[in-house]
Design brief:
7 helices, alpha/beta, single chain
Length: 175
């Protein structure tokens, strides 16, 4: 089967991709708190190094969402291609035998269908970006159950999918 994706302009994947995605089961238990979201946003903002000097690169971070280390950056990669950065983190997870069920994935790039699919294949339930999203990325995230948050900058964000996994602070829940 041929699936047209929403990556860099438009891409094509072959195989029964949607059937494969329907078999992915993300863990039901993990939740992302607004406090942890802000911690990740701040740590990534302070961590980017090549971008601050040269610009024109994408950064991706794998962060903890467990225990006292919530929001801690476990792996960080910058590359001119956002897919290369995602793939490097996926490789690091495989090499280090790190599971994704209690992790948060942050990217500076758009949340396209490919980014959502890669996050799902890594078993990560939370996908964040300082950028926006595509319609197909949104549809796949909603279908799989990924909590997808975009436009993460400062204390601002847009929660697109997975509201049931996201816990707002009492002070902002009333706003």
């Amino acid at each position: 089967k041929r699936t047209v994706t929403t990556g860099c302009g438009q891409g094509t994947m072959f195989g029964d991709l949607m059937e494969e995605l329907d078999r992915i089961r993300l863990p039901a238990g993990p939740r992302l708190t607004e406090e942890t979201l802000y911690t990740v946003m701040d740590r990534v903002r302070r961590h980017e190094s090549i971008y601050k000097v040269a610009g024109a690169v994408h950064g991706c971070a794998l962060c903890s969402n467990a225990g006292d280390s919530r929001g801690e950056i476990l792996a960080f990669v910058e590359d001119v291609g956002r897919h290369n950065a995602v793939d490097a983190i996926a490789g690091w997870m495989w090499r280090e035998d790190v599971g994704g069920g209690d992790k948060i994935f942050y990217t500076t790039g758009r949340l396209t269908s490919e980014m959502v699919i890669k996050c799902a294949q890594m078993g990560i339930p939370f996908l964040l970006s300082r950028s926006g999203l595509t319609h197909m990325g949104y549809e796949i995230a909603a279908r799989i159950g990924i909590t997808m948050i975009g436009r993460c900058q400062g204390k601002h964000y847009l929660l697109f999918t997975g509201a049931g996994r996201f816990l707002r602070s009492p002070a902002t829940a009333l706003a």
